[in-house]
Amino acid sequence: MRNSLLISFIILGVVFFGACTQERSDQPPNIIVILCDDLGYGDLACYGHPHIQTPNIDRLASKGIKLTSCYSAAPVCSPSRVGLLTGRSPNRAGVYDWIPEARNEREDSRDLVHMRTSETTIPALLRKAGYQTCLVGKWHCNAKFNSPEQAQPSDFGFDWWFATQNNALPNHENPVNFVRNGEDVGPMQGFSCQLVVKEAMDWLDRADMEKPFYLQVCFHEPHEKVASPMELVKKYEPVSKNHDEAQYFANVANVDSAVGKLMNRIVTLGEEENTLVIFTSDNGPETLNRYAAAYRSYGSPGELKGMKLWTHEAGFRVPGIIYWPDRLHDGVILDTPVSSLDFLPTFCSLSGVDVADQDLDGTDISAIFNRGEVKRTKPLLWCYYNALNDHYLAMRDGDWKIMARLNIEGNILPSLSNIHEGNEKLVKSAVLEDHMLFLLSEDISEIKEVSADHPDVFIRMQDLLQDQYTELLDNSHIWIK
Questions:
Q1: Could you tell me which of 222, 205, 221 has the C-alpha nearest to residue 213?
Q2: What is the pLDDT of residue 370?
Q3: Among the three residues 350, 378, 406, which one is the final residue of a domain in this structure?
């Protein structure tokens, strides 16, 4: 009798546990996007860095999907962030370059630049599915931060936000410029990535775990001005060229520490299985000493050509890791092109939010969770008018990449940080010339230009680029005072 009762209890327990597990797996996933600032393709141990130790991030890669063709929406911060949030080319939103803080009216109208409330964002859409939403870290989507004159994080669906306009000031250590839900926080003690993660964990502790959440963690690191804990700096000095390089290595390691704390909290809350985590960067690494404050910018592009602000691969091919224990069990290395533009349609697909009426440039990539094929409806297109290289246009379609100059009567279109009523005609008069073709599946470093070897592909890609750029330019926002 006693054995029969014991067996009955075990069976009931298994049935109950199975029912709870089934109920839990049917819920939409929690979603965390971790976005670094200026982290290079070669800056993590799991992407081949010889010295920087990133065990917490490496663990995500070893248990999830390590993307080797992950792209940001732009080779610079503000447009990259706007593209991630909207699933659309940032040019459509009128965010063409990084946004300086507006202190007065500017001739180039950059004081007007911001993500307008007409843009539909990830948190706004996920709230329709009952998500709780939070932003911590760097915002950089407007010129007038924490001002009623321009839209703020709360206007785009974030229930809770703790952010800065651009960089942590005066540097990563003891920042003074954080704002929490519209209120100045004042001077803080500690390093930015650790403060950002603490805010995220405090918010998670207050959140209702019966409902899904969307958490966007935007680290300032390793963007200049780099400042790192001295115990970490000392650890890296023996393998560094100098103290400044050790500071950079320690900066990335400090981010890894913060990621580890965040993931431990997710485990403690019992939410790890059903939490989809994406770790990536807003663009490629800064060029050492490009300007005065970049003296610690020792970021690595790995084997890629270029750096931040370039339309060669290092400008926007970035680390990309997808971790989701409920759907991913063994580490996978995937070379399928994935863009931050894909996050919005993918998250909405997983949460049951219909975006059929949205004019998106990203693609739903949720098929990869079932080891399926991603069918991209549009090629990936970048148009950056302030590139450090001459080819402002780049497009990837499958394994092929084409680049083009924008020329006016044989001369390169002058570099521009914004399109406004004063230069609109100039931009629209430029023609695509001096094309270059690369086969990225065989030449990740863009060493060999192959248009002569593949004339049919070259013609097809030229025509496709022309069509895609014309459509984008026709639908790019022009700023008018």
A1: 205
A2: 86
A3: 378
Please give the Cα distance from 254 to 213 (Å, whole number): 25
Domain co-membership, 249 together with 114? yes
Residues 6 or more apart whose CB falls under 8 angstroms from that of 390 comprise 405, 412, 434
The single-letter code of the amino acid at 14 is V
* Residue of 232, 269, 267 lying closest to 249 (CA atoms): 232
* 333 located within any domain: yes
Residues 372 and 394 in one domain: no
DSSP, residue by residue, 449-468:
--TTT-HHHHHHHHHHHHHH
Q: Given a cut of 50, is residue 247 above it in pLDDT?
A: yes
What are 442-469's pLDDT values in tens digits?
Answer: 999 999 999 999 999 999 999 999 999 9
Helix axes 77-86, 343-351, angle to 10 degrees: 30
Helix (H) or strand (E) holding 58: helix 55-63
Residues 283 and 430 in one domain: no
Q: 89: domain range?
A: 27-378
Same domain? 322 vs 356:
yes
Torsion of the alpha carbons at 260, 211, 270 and 133, rounded to the nearest 10: 10
How far apart (Å, rounded) are the C-alpha atoms in residues 366 and 398?
18
CA-CA distance, 263 to 60, in Å (whole number)? 10
The helices-and-strands tally (H runs, E runs) of the chain is 11, 16
What is the tens place of the pLDDT at every residue in 183-232? 999 999 999 999 999 999 999 999 999 999 999 999 999 999 999 999 99
Per-residue pLDDT tens over the stretch 294-318: 999 999 999 999 999 999 999 999 9
59 and 142 in a single domain? The answer is yes
366: helix, strand or coil: helix
Q: Do 75 and 218 belong together in one domain?
A: yes
Q: Report cis status (omega within 30 of 0) of the bond before 238.
A: no
